[in-house]
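Recall that a protein's primary structure is simply its ordered list of amino acids. Everything else, from secondary elements to tertiary packing, is in principle encoded there. The following example makes that idea concrete.
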Amino acid sequence: MPLFSPVRITSYVMIEDARLKRCTHTREAFSIMMTKEEKEKLENHIRETIEKLKKDVVSFKQLTRPIAPDNAIGRLTRMEAISSKSINEAALRRAKQTLSKLERVLRMADAPDFGLCKTCEEPIPFGRLMIVPETDLCIECAEAVS
């Protein structure tokens, strides 16, 4: 049983000489690309990653606490602690961003366009979604953006 009803999609993509090329396909083709089992596997993977990130956020918060000035550590050790704190703050920001993206993806998992590239509306390969579940671009469109 297909995950999506066959709906005709028309999109336009840029080709090398800046002309628009019309692409038409059906969502029925997409349902062939991602089976129900693959979708469940992806959702479980996202849930596991979210739980891991929540633990990381708690850990990074502890590592980014201010360093007390009355703490009797040497000048070089204090500089090293400040540098380490900055690195942990950056890791905390990245973890929070990824966590929010993954939570959004999990909420959108039942949407009819889940797993479709937001640019060309082609199915994003399952392997790519397992590696970078928060992506909303297929490989070709991601490379074009880079």
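The beta strands are 8-14, 20-26. Residues 45-110 form one domain.
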